[in-house]
Amino acid sequence: MAEALPSVAFVGAGSMGGSILKGLVASGIPVDGGIYVTNRSAAKAEALSSLENVTSIALENTPDGNVDAVAAARVVLVGVKPYMIADLLDQIGPHLREDAIVVSLAAGITIAQFEDKLGRTSVIRSMPNTPSTVGKGVTGLAAGTYASEDDMAIVRRLFETVGDVVEVSGDDGIDAISTISGSGPAYVFLFIEKMIEAAKHQGFDDDTARLIAEKTFIGATTFLEASGQHPADLRRGVTSPKGTTHEAVETFQAAGLGDLFVRATDAAYARAKELAAEG
User: Fold this and answer.
1) For residue 76, what are the β-bridge partners?
2) CATH number of 195's domain
3) 164 forms bridges with which residues in the sheet?
4) 160 in a structural domain
5) Cβ-based neighbours of 10, under 8 Å, separated by 6 or more
6) For 239-276, what is each residue's pLDDT tens digit?
7) Cα 13 to Cα 225: distance, rounded to the nearest angstrom
8) What is the Cα–Cα distance from 55 to 104, expressed in whole angstroms?
9) pTM score, two decimals?
10) Measured distance CA(264)–CA(187) in Å, rounded
11) Same-domain status, 188 and 161
12) So what family is this one in (predicted)?
């Protein structure tokens, strides 16, 4: 049997927090002391109440529910909206356990902003992405000043229930990974969107265009994962010299596709820094 995780609290379980919660439950990893989750509405709390080993708390019925949850848990995942973070930390800070590990799911809120509120508490900043909802996520983790290797190992195991984990250095590392895996699903969806438009340009109807674009992308990425090869090697394998694929790839390259990706991710990184400064 897998080594047990310590008790966990999800303070705010929106789409991302809810996905991680469901992944943790589905993994079957035992959680000593149970899992606690808070939501503002009774309806949202009720939707999670049937999960095994989960205590779901509706703040509209239990105003001190956040305090109750964090007091009972070793690992506290903060999943509320960024603008709510400061007030929430003021509320829960005095009630955290001495050995608490506080994990931020909030974009644009720095480790220092958490530590300014929580003192010498172990803080870990995370950057999961939306494929976590189907167990195919990539999560970046950055340790705060007081987070130990053991703390990171615990949080890593938790996020591995919804995909892969990459440890990065500080807020700069989180901002960097956010430009690739964090924002990356949007880039993929945009590419597929443009493939659909190209298919329609070639004369296919809407449904057929979507099918061939989406399934080609899903098939290619599944093949990539199964092969273990570098994508450049697979690309060369299907690109016959002077063939049709060669002409298309050369057109992409001539348009500066590589430079465009660099400029796009640099723009995302700059915006991440702006958001942190605004916060």
Assistant:
1) 9, 102
2) 1.10.3730.10
3) 138
4) yes
5) 17, 18, 20, 21, 35, 36, 37, 38, 69, 77, 79
6) 999 999 999 999 999 999 999 999 999 999 999 999 88
7) 31
8) 21
9) 0.93
10) 10
11) no
12) Belongs to the pyrroline-5-carboxylate reductase family.
